[in-house]
Predict the 3D structure of the following.
Amino acid sequence: MFTKILIANRGEIACRIIKTARALGVATVAVYSDADRHALHVQMADEAVHIGSSPSNESYLVIEKVIQAALETGAKAIHPGYGFLSENAEFCRQCAANNLVFIGPPVEAILAMGSKSAAKTIMADAGVPLVPGYHGDDQNPDIIKQAANQMGYPVLLKAAAGGGGKGMRAVYSEAEFDEALGAAKREAINSFNDDIMLVEKYLLKPRHVEIQVFCDSHKNAVYLFERDCSVQRRHQKVIEEAPAPGMTDALRKQMGEAAIKAAKAINYEGAGTVEFLLDAQGEFFFMEMNTRLQVEHPVTEMISGQDLVEWQLRVAGGEPLPCSQDQLTISGHAFEARIYAEDPDHDFLPATGILKHLQAPLENANVRVDTGVVEGDEVSIYYDPMVAKLVVWDTDRDRALQRLTQALSEYRIGGLTTNIGFLYNLATSQAFQHGDVDTGYIEEHEQEIFRQRDSDIDYAAPLAAAAIIEQRQQQAIEAASLSSEPNSPWHLNTSWGLPQPNLKMQIQRAVVETTVDSNTSLDGLTIAPTDTGFDLFTPQGFFHCAEVQPDLGTDDENAHGGNLNAPMNGTLVALLVDIGTKVNKGDTLLVMEAMKMEHSIIAPSDGAVTEFYFQPGDLVDGGSELLAFEANSE
Ligand code: ADP
């Protein structure tokens, strides 16, 4: 076992790796950027090295700085976590060149799986079932279109270098093909500087079922069962679970063995995930292999009782796998919900701000919270907006799901927008309760998940009113105590006081189905102030209460997609139209990127852009006007 390792990552994953290292008696070195000077992972590690300014391409992504930090501190190995340098072949090479062990697969395996097209060729040769499609070298658009026509629509275009759902477009007919290919290529160039495309049959309502594999340097390989990650927004996972609902022993074995075949085809070592699409007939198709530890690995840990980071450290140190396939068993059921600072009501736009109030559910044998932040920390524009992973376990799916909804209702974050209410509605939606999931789940059940029921308002309104009174009384007491005349009637918060302006509150989507309790008291309520009002946490869920401002003009514009201002601090990625060229309402005018997600600015009406105020690569402050637009006069 290593004596000291460096963790080339931040946030929850860095903290999670430190926990295992500590349990094994391995010393840890954290690295950090300016923005992370006081971050939890820095505090938790035995040592920490500053590696640059806040943008990740000036710190966490700079190979030389990370290697230098390891050499200076005497670390013997580097754990890359996920994201950042975890699948970077050059980083892997540089580790070897500096006698540092890369805690991950051999560089050849990273290279082999780095391109979705090349990976498919290898898997086809190894006899692993593939989604029907074209992944050839000839990138002539006519050849790709011909392949699409032959396999029949709908098809899915994907960037070979893709990840994070970028450079991906579903195409429903030949007529849409050329435009979709252009858009997908553009996005791929902007995101990966590479526009090689492949095209696949777009399976309708498949499930995303992935297999956790582990291989060592002694030619042992096992699979630690499956995870169902079908519930996705923007083709990205939000709730994962293990085992997959409805999975049979026979299919599990078949998929597990196919995954091992995939891993062996590239002489894999360490932790890897083979992703499959599973159709309603139980047929499964290889999608890609991720050559790292996945975000959702905790659900596998919960059902298998194994610590996958410990396995990684052992395997990287040359030890054989801790278990054989026969020794691995599934116990119970686990869920993971990804808690993000983002706004589900506005296309999941990432949110930034200070975590003014942060209260996670209590951790115990059934509830685990993997996080890298504490109350008062900032979710900044620089990194992924994930706040935590809430992981629960119980003896069966129903019980585990009950734990999940309970824990979500106890999770209280104030100060910025999160997806907790959305996750709660998702977890309590009927079909999800029955395990009836597929990759289109959120769109299919939009009505149920994004609903606002009268009963929610009936329940929340009196609580919000009571909360306001309580808050004002508190303010009155504080004002009185600071005053030279504490007994002055002007400090009374009763009808004697100065008249309050007529207060109008907007109470947003509640998270629970509930009956109105006329005896509701304020016991068990938490009121967390926000910029516009407060978040009201009740024992049954929570509500956003915002004071309605008289000037709603700009917000209205926002709601209709006509806002030409930057939604948040970010980088301008691409201008997609020419000045003066006629565009139609809804056309994308430019693309910005913030917190690893793209955001499109769209035409508010038919018309033309008369000026762009920024160029690709420019850093733009949230709220800045981006362009001048002239609507058609007729
Ligand atoms: P990325 O690497 O960008 O995350 P993936 O290839 O892993 O992209 O695909 C992400 C998600 O897109 C999958 O989990 C699945 O929901 C959906 N998807 C991918 N390929 C197909 C397909 N051929 N048919 C239907 N859905 C697909």
